[in-house]
Amino acid sequence: MHSVPRYGITVGGMESPVTTARLGPAAAEWVPVETCTLPTIEQPLRVAEFDSLFATALRAVEVPAGAGTRARLVLAGDHDLPARVQRLADAETACCSFFSFTLTPLVTGPRGEDADTAVVALDIEVPDVRADVLAALVDRAEQARRAAA
């Protein structure tokens, strides 16, 4: 046996390399490698941040008919949610500058039992050439919401 860089361990005479399972969250499949400036080692952490947000706060996904370059994610959570979403959107824009994120407060819970509930819309827009990236992000969001239900 010997180690082959980027392939794992191989045994002499094998037709194809044996790879080790990847632990932790997957890299950001929705972003082409050549367009993202986030260091590769940090990409799984960013994906985990989005997955956590989607699983805990996503309430609806709205994609206007015929608008493959725009989507709206409606998120609900505690009073810290808007700041959490804004930090994540800012971080993503810093490494993938083709994303445009706009955060809009929609509702704050009435006085009483839901006083700490915040509802926000995260509007996402990308150029036409990145419509596939937005579609993949929306798909990941919907999968996380279904898995959390």
Protein model, in words:
The protein is an alpha+beta fold and 149 residues long. The protein has one domain: 2-Layer Sandwich (Gyrase A, domain 2). Helix content is 32%, strand content 24%. It has 3 helices and 6 strands, in the order E-E-H-E-E-H-E-E-H. The strands form 2 sheets. A 4-stranded antiparallel beta sheet has the order 3-4-6-5. Strand 3 and strand 4 (70-77) form a beta hairpin. Helix 1 (43-57) packs antiparallel against helix 2 (81-95) and helix 1 (43-57) crosses helix 3 (131-148). It is globular, with a radius of gyration of 19 Å. The N and C termini lie far apart (45 Å).
Descriptors:
Gyrase A, domain 2, disordered N terminus, alpha+beta, two-stranded antiparallel sheet, four-stranded antiparallel beta sheet, 3 helices, 149 residues
Low-confidence parts: 1-27
Rounded to the nearest angstrom, the radius of gyration is 19 Å
Order of helices and strands: EEHEEHEEH
How many helix segments? 3
Stated plainly, the CATH topology is called Gyrase A, domain 2
Strand order across the largest sheet: 3-4-6-5
> In CATH, what is the class?
Alpha Beta
- Which overall shape is indicated by the principal axes computed on the Cα atoms? globular
